[in-house]
Design a protein that fits this description.
By secondary structure, the protein is mainly beta. It has helices at 24-41, 133-136, 406-409; strands at residues 2-5, 57-64, 103-104, 150-157, 169-175, 186-190, 195-199, 202-210, 213-221, 226-231, 234-243, 246-247, 253-259, 273-277, 282-285, 287-295, 300-308, 312-320, 322-330, 342-346, 352-356, 362-366, 368-376, 379-387, 393-398. A hairpin with a 4-residue loop joins β16 and β17.
Length: 416
């Protein structure tokens, strides 16, 4: 397997324009802040290499994930809170009637707004000059909250020393006390990378999801506005396969991801993510995984370990040692395949590999020796053949020349 982390050629999101007209100095400050966020999003990572189960995978790791990852909600109920392959950068807006919508900061890095008129309600929303606001938190200034509310500016980063997560976040704020039904009421939610929630004083649980990774934190809101930053240790992986240095068409290969290590014998038995397609960008919690790659409709299956680092995109290529075989039952060499033939493929030890009722089935098989059995009009014909890596061949079984012994001829036909 080959695994590498690369710097994706993705554009940094354009900064949001201010809603009010300001001077040239303010516009310059906006541009500088946007450039700073882009620089953080595309900070380069270090090359990492690791061994895998058998010489089956190449893995390159180390490039930033920041501006290149986006998430869209998955529709499959079996995946619960999982998100489908992350191809849509814009989540659907949330409009539940019982939810107080959040308000995102209009823009980042702007100069302080003009002082509010005297008599305006609500505490001051200026952030104290402490912490890591410059370059470490997008909320240099928080908007003025409504009366009786407090502004809480949220943001997330990949790690204590990693960059900010620029998009793809789903935020939810719950009350920290359950209702009579036992459910925790949802107070607010947002799909902005750095939303500002206007909350009443009290206790809350803030949950943020990024792909399949998520974290939660309990906060207590007092009388002063402030910012909160969560660490979401997430990375991403894209998977590909090849045979004999030739890429396998994406529609012919699927992947299942498991937590743990196949090599070290500490792998989960349940897939963490099932049915991934080649080239999908899959956002995962950082950690160790092993991937099972299934090529075609046969026994071409391999496993390999890979590592997902926080804030990095891991590009892994799994190397199959297999070939495609097309079976044909013919009366003469090169003739048309006979219809209604029932096929089965077995190993030299007699283990069944695959069956088909198609007249001309095609299978992707791991390299090795096999026996093809064709049942037609009450008789069974067979042929031994060999699969070599990267070679796609036709195997013709001639009627009347390779009749199997009586013991095989009396077997029940397949084709279910």
């Amino acid at each position: 397997m080959s695994q590498r982390v690369h710097s994706p050629d993705r554009r940094c999101p354009a900064p949001v324009r201010p809603t009010q007209k300001r001077g040239y100095a303010a516009a310059a400050a906006v541009r500088r802040a946007a450039a700073l966020l882009c620089a953080l999003a595309f900070a380069s990572g270090a090359m990492v290499q690791q061994a895998a189960a058998q010489p089956t995978m190449t893995q390159m790791a180390g490039a930033p994930i920041a501006a290149g990852l986006a998430a869209n909600a998955g529709a499959d109920g079996e995946r619960l809170a999982q998100l489908a392959p992350f191809q849509s950068p814009t989540p659907s807006p949330f409009n539940p009637p019982q939810i107080q919508p959040s308000r995102a900061l209009p823009f980042v890095g702007a100069p302080p707004p003009a002082p509010p008129p005297s008599g305006s309600a609500g505490p001051s929303a200026r952030i104290p000059a402490t912490g890591r606001a410059e370059g470490g938190d997008p909320h240099t200034i928080l908007p003025q909250p409504p009366a009786g509310k407090v502004a809480i500016g949220m943001s997330a980063r990949f790690g204590e020393k990693e960059g900010l997560i620029a998009r793809g976040l789903i935020w939810r704020v719950f009350a920290d006390r359950p209702e009579a039904s036992g459910a925790y009421p949802l107070v607010a939610e947002a799909a902005d990378p750095a939303p500002v929630f206007f909350l009443s004083p009290g206790g809350y649980v803030v949950h943020v999801a990024y792909g399949l990774a998520s974290v939660a934190r309990r906060i207590v809101v007092g009388e002063e506005s402030r910012r909160e930053q969560l660490v979401v240790p997430a990375g991403a992986v894209t998977l590909h396969s090849d045979v004999g240095d030739k890429p396998v068409p994406p529609e012919k290969v699927t992947y299942d991801l498991f937590e743990g290590s196949f090599l070290q014998g500490r792998a989960s038995s349940r897939p963490y993510y099932r049915g991934a397609n080649a080239g999908d960008l899959i956002i995962l919690p950082a950690g160790d995984y092993y991937v099972v790659s299934t090529y075609g409709d046969g026994n071409a299956v391999i496993q390999a370990d890979l590592a997902v680092a926080p804030g990095k995109v891991t590009d892994a290529t799994l190397h199959h040692r297999a070939g495609e075989v097309t079976l044909r039952l013919v009366k003469v060499a090169g003739g048309d395949p006979l219809p209604e033939a029932q096929w089965s493929i077995s190993t030299p030890g007699g283990d069944s590999v695959k069956e088909s009722i198609n007249a001309e089935p095609t299978f992707a098989l791991a390299e090795g020796e096999y026996t093809a059995l064709a049942r037609f009009e009450g008789k069974t014909y067979s042929k031994v053949f060999t699969v070599e890596t990267g070679k796609n061949e036709q195997v013709e079984v001639l009627v009347g020349e390779q009749v199997t012994p009586g013991a095989l001829d009396g077997q029940d036909g397949s084709g279910d």
